[in-house]
Write a structure and sequence with these properties.
elongated, 2 helices, alpha+beta
């Protein structure tokens, strides 16, 4: 009767080495997919904000800096703060409890600090990398708006930045494409840029 043989120490070491190598190779890909999934929140909500501003403009003939007036209220659990006012005087809603509360004068949506209590709280005040700060020009003839989204999607710095505007833009010195149409979210500062650089910003080959 033959006695079953177990693994030798060498075989175990080889197997462990192969598993470790596979984990190391797949980690960047997983981080990229995770980052993309989290960035989709900013793109989706900024498009919703843009649609809300456009609807308000068609109804009242001007844009508004009030997120409650335009009816913009992202679902709880948001990793990004959304701004219509890029200055330190912004008035964000309160998302530190179980239920978000928004005042009539709120011009920003804060990160859900109830779900993410250690989120990078200074992210909303970081200067936008493309240089266009969130702001609303309420004129009935020459009105315009720029909205921003900033959040920490991977627990390190720099933060991930997105913006959207009522007009087309030409950008430089940032991670966004050089030409951004009206109503299209632009990734001003890509927090996963080290993993996946923007091909539209890469220098030409020699």
């Amino acid at each position: 009767m033959r006695v079953p043989k177990g693994f030798t120490m060498l075989e175990l070491m080889v197997s462990i080495s192969i598993v470790a190598l596979l984990c190391a190779v797949s980690a960047p890909g997983f981080s990229r997919l995770q980052g993309r999934a989290r960035q989709s929140e900013a793109k989706t909500n900024l498009r919703a904000l843009w649609a809300s501003e456009q609807g308000y403009f068609y109804a009242f003939g001007a844009y508004s800096a009030s997120v409650s007036k335009i009816g913009f209220e992202p679902l709880a659990g948001n990793r990004y703060q959304y701004n219509l006012n890029g200055t330190s005087s912004q008035n964000a809603d309160n998302r530190t409890g179980t239920t978000p509360t928004t005042t009539a004068g709120a011009d920003a949506i804060m990160i859900d600090l109830f779900k993410f209590p250690t989120a990078y709280r200074d992210a909303p005040l970081a200067p936008m990398k493309c240089g266009l700060a969130p702001a609303v020009k309420t004129g009935t003839v020459d009105g315009s708006f720029v909205a921003g989204a900033q959040g920490n999607i991977d627990e390190d710095r720099p933060v991930d930045q997105w913006s959207i505007a009522s007009f087309g833009r030409t950008t430089s010195g940032c991670d966004a494409p050089p030409h951004v149409p009206a109503g299209e979210p632009a990734n001003d500062q890509n927090d996963i840029n080290a993993i996946e650089p923007n091909p539209e910003r890469e220098p030409p080959e020699d």
